Automatic annotation (TrEMBL):
<dbReference type="InterPro" id="IPR036188">
    <property type="entry name" value="FAD/NAD-bd_sf"/>
</dbReference>
<feature type="domain" description="FAD-binding">
    <location>
        <begin position="10"/>
        <end position="178"/>
    </location>
</feature>
<dbReference type="GO" id="GO:0004497">
    <property type="term" value="F:monooxygenase activity"/>
</dbReference>
<dbReference type="Pfam" id="PF01494">
    <property type="entry name" value="FAD_binding_3"/>
</dbReference>
<dbReference type="GO" id="GO:0071949">
    <property type="term" value="F:FAD binding"/>
</dbReference>
<feature type="domain" description="FAD-binding">
    <location>
        <begin position="317"/>
        <end position="355"/>
    </location>
</feature>
<keyword id="KW-0274">FAD</keyword>
<dbReference type="InterPro" id="IPR002938">
    <property type="entry name" value="FAD-bd"/>
</dbReference>
<protein>
    <recommendedName>
        <fullName>FAD-binding domain-containing protein</fullName>
    </recommendedName>
</protein>
<keyword id="KW-0503">Monooxygenase</keyword>
<keyword id="KW-0560">Oxidoreductase</keyword>
<keyword id="KW-0285">Flavoprotein</keyword>
Amino acid sequence: MPSTTSSPRIAIIGAGPAGLTLYLLLHARGIKSIIFELRQKPTEEELSKPSGCLDLHQESGLAAIRECGLWEEFIRLTGDCTEAQKVTDKDGIILHEDQGELSDRPEISRHALIKLLASHLPEDSIRWCHKLMYAAEIQTTAGTKVQLDFGVHGRHFADFVIGADGAWSQVRSMLTTVKPYYVGTQNITLTIRQLTTKYPHLDVLVGRGSFSALGLRHGVMSQRGPLDSARIYIFLTTPDEQAAVTLGLANQPASATKEMLFTNNELLGQWGETMKDLVAVACDEETMDNPDATIDIRPLYTLPIGASWEHNPIATLVGDAAHLMCPWAGEGVNLAMLDSLTLAHAIADAVQSAEQTGPSFRWRLSPLLRKCEQTQASRAKEKAEETETNGKMLFSENGAQKFAKFFQSVYGSVAETPETRHEEAERDN
């Protein structure tokens, strides 16, 4: 006899990689859902601009890409940033360099990944400019529902809601009181376009992949990207969460902040001229590209290691909403997409079971979801511990030396640099 079970109303909050991946995986299984996103729909021009690159891992991000059936399209979008790595000290002296020979983690720009995932969604799948004000469990004549309040856009009722809404998730607030905390690091983001033709000496410095200059508890890092760009990240260690205001960097154009960075010995004042040149060019280029904008400086936050929530069969979390962490291990997007992959399997099994036997969707989903959340929490805790360890290594007084040794241990030999040649000569004497 045909099942009379109606399809569950599933709401996904957030149209980042986690939310988009989850929608695609459910859609491929004939399961309807809807995404609510606070931002307005990005234009083609916005998605063509340089953005940070993401390295997807075989067991997580790439596994999700393959299951979405997007591998061939995905691989054509990689290559702007290679898997090469270069590590220097604060003076720009190379301590380690490789061409990514041992890596199998292709890089894709964040904008390209978002565009790829979104291009396979039905036209009406995302409701843009919907900012979730709060989410609450309510009782109705039809049973327990999740009430989602979108302010001027009204309310939406769902049988099950997934919080893919990032660091300050509203969905998280209905499951736990745990909130992110400041990690003691400020991040400045800058972009240099057409690096090869405009600044060939800096092109040589940062290379074709990822670049990390470290020292005195700070870092200047770079990733290559579309339009022959280099995305420059300046990480400043400070206990002051409001450092942007305290240091006078807030509300200033990027070009006006470089002297503040260079004349303050607590910031980049003791760094060498090579690295100051890279930062100065990046500041000037950022202002030329965005003359009316102020510098993009933000404090970094994380959730406590091992953070979790009491299981509730009407809601769950994926990505940063579930396990926000700093980017020191490159796990954020990978964990997010793996969360969505495993959750999609659980939802599909519950829907199929409910259709075959008649019990409610949530009754069938609950044990599957609980197991999924336990596995998610376990792997997130492991990666959060790795991230914290990496952060302590990178932003120590001699972070460059420690990071170089890490790569050298991976490659099994010390890369030959002027420093190692000097050390070998000293030993020989």
